[in-house]
């Protein structure tokens, strides 16, 4: 689909511009045979509310970040290898339309496009890149367990584990990294090493903890709440390392994504 852009000067310039927009906070993106396939704004469902994020689709990775200055500066860069990515369409539900889930072992979340056409183009291009990458590598998609898509905070009034504890300013909401449920502190007091998601033990609900412990024959790493594992900014965040209340929120308006290989829905 984009083979003609490999090693081209225009592709190198595009990738260099993306690197410059992330600045020193981002990882280098220029690699042999890497092509920038497309870019545009999608609305990512974060922990507390939907927020616009800038996405860059390459032929081997998906990159996104927070928008500081549109088309000029981004931060909090996230990189997801495409060979692990699966897509699942989301049915329209009132205000939330044209959405799908991006699912992988390291990170899973929901995104929304501004129109059904944009949704179709994004999904077609991502799926095409995944299939082309696996074909070139002579691989099939891994059967490693995927990370969960987190339940939004707004969907839970009480703990989804004990079904008793009501959330409040003092009784904070937490997310289980194994199932994505919103749970209270006592019901998420244990942590487990989920190697595909992080190198440190992550918060899990008591139900998942018991299942993980049984599955490992009673082994595994137990870390009591507030002990052993420091909060590194990711343990209770949305996967964007912060959920900045000062950021613009809501579903993004159309910014007409650009796909450099042409339309993927007409082929």
Automatic annotation (TrEMBL):
**Keywords tagged on the record:** Metal-binding, Zinc, Zinc-finger
The segment(s) forming the PH domain are 35-131
Q: Which InterPro entries match?
A: PH-like_dom_sf (IPR011993), PH_domain (IPR001849), PH_domain-containing_F (IPR051765), PH_Phafin (IPR037871), Znf_FYVE (IPR000306), Znf_FYVE-rel (IPR017455), Znf_FYVE_PHD (IPR011011), Znf_RING/FYVE/PHD (IPR013083)
Provide one Gene Ontology biological process annotation: endosome to lysosome transport
Q: Which GO terms describe its molecular function?
A: phosphatidylinositol binding; zinc ion binding
In what residue span(s) does the FYVE-type domain sit?
153-213
Give the Pfam families listed for this entry. FYVE (PF01363), PH (PF00169)
Q: Where is the composition biased (Low complexity)?
A: 222-240
Question: Does the record's keyword annotation contain Zinc?
Answer: yes
Decide whether keyword Zinc is in the record: yes
| Annotated Gene Ontology cellular component terms | early endosome
Q: What is this protein called?
A: Pleckstrin homology domain-containing family F member 2
Record the organism: Ridgeia piscesae
